[in-house]
Amino acid sequence: MRKGLILNIISNLVFFVSGYLIHYYLGGHTSAAAYGVVGTIITVLDFEYMFTSNGARQSLSRNISSGKYNVGDVIVKTLAVQAGIVALFFAINFFGAPLFGTVFNDDSLDFYFKLAAFLPISNGLYVMMLGINDGLQRFQYSAFLSTFYPIVKLGVIPLIMFVFPHDPVMGVEVGYFSAMVITIVLGLALLAPVWPQLKRTGTERIRLGEVAHGVLSFSFFFIMASLVLSADTLVVKSVVSPASMAGYYTGAMNFGKTTYYLLQAFAVIILPVVSGLVAKGDLRQAGQKAQSLVLVAFGFIFPMAVVISATSRDLLTTFYKPEFTVAAPALSCLAFSSFFMGMTVVFNMVLNAEKDTHFSDMLSIVSLVLVIPIFVVSARYGGITAIAAASMVCTFITMTLSYIEVRRRMMDVMTPKTWAVISINVVIWVVLFLIGRVVSVQNFFLLALIYAVVYFAYIGVLFVARVVSIDQLKAMKGGK
């Protein structure tokens, strides 16, 4: 488990560093309005990726790791369900393209959404391979593919520079699709040696209805997560004026989602590990694994949200342009919003390890009903700061409710050490925020260096105070 977690964190680090480089180029070489168009396309794709990615991946991971079913049978039936979902999104993007242009007040989106219709197809196949490797607890292979893809995706930049200099949106879409196809070919090659073994594992055939329920349940939950994290950008594009605000908000969201992407590594690991232990009837060990991962999540990922939130003004100014400072209060909220949603996902993966998805389904339904109206009202009357604050409040509520349900059904995964970590981070936020009111950093690389110094000093405090120890980290075994 420890090795798999580290590798998946690295892969997610590469993923968002790659994204930052792409956004850095786009934000610096296009107008704020044009960057807003790119942000709208990417946001919709992220929304669809959440649906086509996490449902199949997590369902495969849970069903394979249980050791109960024939793996080949699970894969074939999950692929059938995934094909139906992908076909739905293809139709929505391709045939509904004119409607997107009307909703977002931009007729140029018509062509781009037709082109985007092909991206969920490649993504749907890509995540199938990740789910198979996760279920077999071959975390190093899924981490490798997750690292390889964003590196190849950087080809977007030369594509825009040399092939599509006057159409950056097309450059982004062609680059994303090409990178996905290359990764799929590599993934199939990596699975080839173990495919004969998969046909011999497990004896029971899984029902197609059970597969569909698992995929759709996970997908529905991640739609909720994606909606809360992404719908605000679309609402800003539709409601807030001037158009440049969408670009500024996209810049804030780019940094705000950092911790969410990192916490996906925890969600990927915690589901098959806890599910496997639950299937064996070892609930005590399953709870201890969950406690360890939650402590590490708060200990090593939460401070990133804290630092970004406290220094949002300098971060946006040095990374983009001075005018992006208008989105600093929004980023301060979004940094926490993404972390809270990431922990919501982690807690629900613990709950879903038992194959009881009732709570997650209800949480998703209520969130889907309430979030959009809250975002629209917030944006209309308070602009980008108000909608970001609304996002933070909503995700805090979903995280808290999920934690309470885990404690009720299994055990308290928030240990005294975890609460101590949270207290330390509160102090760090206050100190950095007050310093930021007096001192301003004008260079991004200097700011990054300050981040590194603060982070490693903080980690040193955790070890000196014995909140986290080497022995604890070594105890996180299991998986590959």
UniProtKB/TrEMBL annotation:
UniProt KW keywords: Cell membrane, Membrane, Transmembrane, Transmembrane helix
GO cellular component, one term: plasma membrane
GO molecular function: antiporter activity; xenobiotic transmembrane transporter activity
Compartments where found: Cell membrane
Keyword Disulfide bond (UniProt): no
Pfam families: MatE (PF01554)
Record's bilayer topology term: Multi-pass membrane protein
Location, primary (coarse class): membrane
Transmembrane segments annotated in the record for this chain: 5-26, 32-53, 74-99, 111-132, 144-164, 176-195, 215-240, 260-279, 291-312, 324-351, 363-381, 387-406, 418-439, 445-468
Superkingdom of origin: Bacteria
Signal peptide: none
The name this protein goes by in its record: Oligosaccharide flippase family protein
Organism field: Bifidobacterium aerophilum
